[in-house]
Every structure is written in C-alpha cells, then in structure tokens.
Amino acid sequence: MSPQDGGKDVFVHATALEQAGLPPLQEGQSVRMNVVQGAKGPEVSSISVG
Fold first, then answer.
1. pLDDT, tens only, 3-40
2. Which residues form the domain of 19?
3. Is 33 helix (H, G, I), strand (E, B) or coil?
4. What are phi and psi of 22, to 5 degrees?
5. How far is the first Cα of the chain from the last one, in angstroms, to the nearest whole number?
6. SS in 3 state form for the chain?
7. Residue 7 lies in a domain
8. Beta bridge partners of residue 8, listed in sequence order
9. Helices (H), 1-50
10. pTM of structure
11. What DSSP designation does 43 have?
12. Is residue 43 a part of any domain in this protein?
C-alpha cells in the first residue's frame, strides 16, 4: 500500500483482507487503513474499502 501523504509503503497480507471480509484489492483501489507498529515494523491493524 502507498499512503496518499507520500509516506512509506505498508505491506498488507492477504489474511488481513480476509479477516476484514474484503476481496483481493485491485491496483489503484482506494482503502482506509490503520497502521500500528508491529514486532517486525509497521503493520495494518484494520482496513476498509473507501
């Protein structure tokens, strides 16, 4: 994922999408996500389309 504010890209694992009940994302699709600091760096804690 590439933030609109130009920040660093954030990796989103397919299981995060599945847990949110979302289908696979398409390139260029807009999403809202909450990023937290995980054990291995930034990770998405919640995600929604829109």
1. 888 888 887 888 878 888 888 888 888 888 888 898 98
2. 14-49
3. strand
4. -100, 150
5. 14
6. CCCCCCCCCCCCCHHHHHHCCCCCCCCCCCEEEEEEEECCEEEEEEEEEC
7. no
8. none
9. 14-19
10. 0.59
11. E
12. yes
Residue 13's contacts (CB-CB under 8 Å, 6 or more residues apart) are none
Does residue 41 lie in a domain region? yes
Separation between Cα atoms, residue 9 and residue 23, nearest integer Å = 20
| 12-19: long-range pairs with CB below 8 Å, 24+ | 12/44, 12/47, 16/44, 16/47, 17/47
User: What residue type is 3 in one-letter code?
Assistant: P
Classified as helix, coil or strand, 25 is: coil
Q: Specify the number of domains making up the chain.
A: 1
Query: Among 36, 38, 31, which Cα is nearest to 17's?
Result: 31
Assigned domain for 28 exists: yes
